[in-house]
Write a structure and sequence with these properties.
mainly alpha; 10 helices; flat
C-alpha cells in the first residue's frame, strides 16, 4: 500500500485511458466513440499533470503538449480502427507526431530515420492490404477484437511500469563518457570510429557503421523483405484451382 500513497491521480488517469481504449476496441455491438475518446482525453490530461516537468518557455510547452497529445490520440485510433487502411494512416500520423518530439529534443537525424523507416513500413502495409485483403468486406477479426479485456490489461500494466520508472527517475542527465581505447565497442565497430586526426560527424558515423560494420545484417533484412514482397505478389492473384 505504500507504493499507492500519493499516486491516486496517476492510477485514476491511467485507468480512464485503459477503459477508454477498451471501449473503443471493435465489437459486434456498435458503441458511441465519443465516450471512449472522452475517457482517453481525460486520462491523458491527468497523466500530463502527473508527469509535468519544471517550467520552460511557453512555446516549447505548447509544442510538447500538442505533439504528445497528437501521438496519444492517433495511437489510440490506430489500435481501435476497424479498417486496416485507416489504421495504417493513423499509424503514419502517430509516427509524424513522435518524430516531432524527437526534433524538439534536438535529435533531427533520429526523426528523419524514423520517418524513412516507418514510411517504408506503411507503404509495405498498404501493398499487403491491397493484395491480400478480402474483397467481400471486413473480416471477422476486423469487426471484433479478440480478448479485449486481457489485451488492455496486459498493455496498460506494462505502460504503468514504464510511467512509474519515468516518474521516479531523476531529470538530471548523465554526461556521456567516451569509451576507453581498446574497449569492446571500439574493437567490434572499427568503421564507425574516427581515425586519428579525423572529424567524424554523427550521420557519417552511423552510415559507416550501418553499411560497414553491419552490412551483412542489413543485406539479410533487405533480402527477407524482398522475398516477402515476391511471395505476396505470387499468392495474391486469384487463379483457378490447380494452376500456378
Amino acid at each position: 500500500m505504500n507504493w499507492m500513497e500519493g499516486r491516486g491521480l496517476f492510477l485514476i488517469s491511467l485507468t480512464l485511458i485503459a477503459v477508454g481504449v477498451m471501449w473503443l476496441l471493435p465489437r459486434r455491438a456498435v458503441r458511441s466513440k465519443a465516450v471512449g475518446l472522452a475517457l482517453v482525453v481525460l486520462g491523458g490530461i491527468g497523466q500530463g499533470f502527473v508527469l509535468r516537468t519544471p517550467a520552460s518557455p511557453i512555446v516549447y510547452e505548447l509544442m510538447f503538449w500538442f505533439l504528445a497529445g497528437s501521438a496519444l490520440f492517433f495511437g489510440v485510433l490506430t489500435i481501435t480502427s476497424r479498417n486496416p487502411i485507416y489504421g495504417a494512416l493513423w499509424f503514419a500520423l502517430t509516427t509524424l507526431a513522435t518524430c516531432g518530439l524527437f526534433i524538439r529534443m534536438s535529435a533531427p537525424f533520429l526523426a528523419a530515420a524514423t520517418i524513412i523507416v516507418y514510411a517504408g513500413a506503411i507503404i509495405v502495409t498498404f501493398v499487403f492490404v491491397i493484395m491480400l485483403a478480402q474483397q467481400a468486406g471486413c473480416t471477422a477479426y476486423d469487426q471484433r477484437s479478440r480478448r479485449p479485456i486481457l489485451a488492455t490489461i496486459s498493455g496498460f500494466v506494462l505502460l504503468a511500469a514504464v510511467l512509474t520508472v519515468l516518474h521516479q527517475s531523476s531529470p538530471v542527465l548523465v554526461a556521456a563518457v567516451p569509451p576507453a581505447v581498446g574497449s569492446d565497442a571500439e574493437v567490434s565497430n572499427p568503421l564507425s570510429r574516427p581515425k586519428p586526426g579525423e572529424t567524424l560527424g554523427t550521420m557519417h558515423g552511423v552510415g559507416r557503421s550501418l553499411f560497414g560494420d553491419y552490412l551483412f545484417e542489413v543485406e539479410v533484412a533487405g533480402t527477407l523483405l524482398l522475398v516477402a514482397s515476391i511471395g505476396a505478389i505470387a499468392i495474391a492473384p486469384r487463379r483457378e484451382q490447380g494452376t500456378l
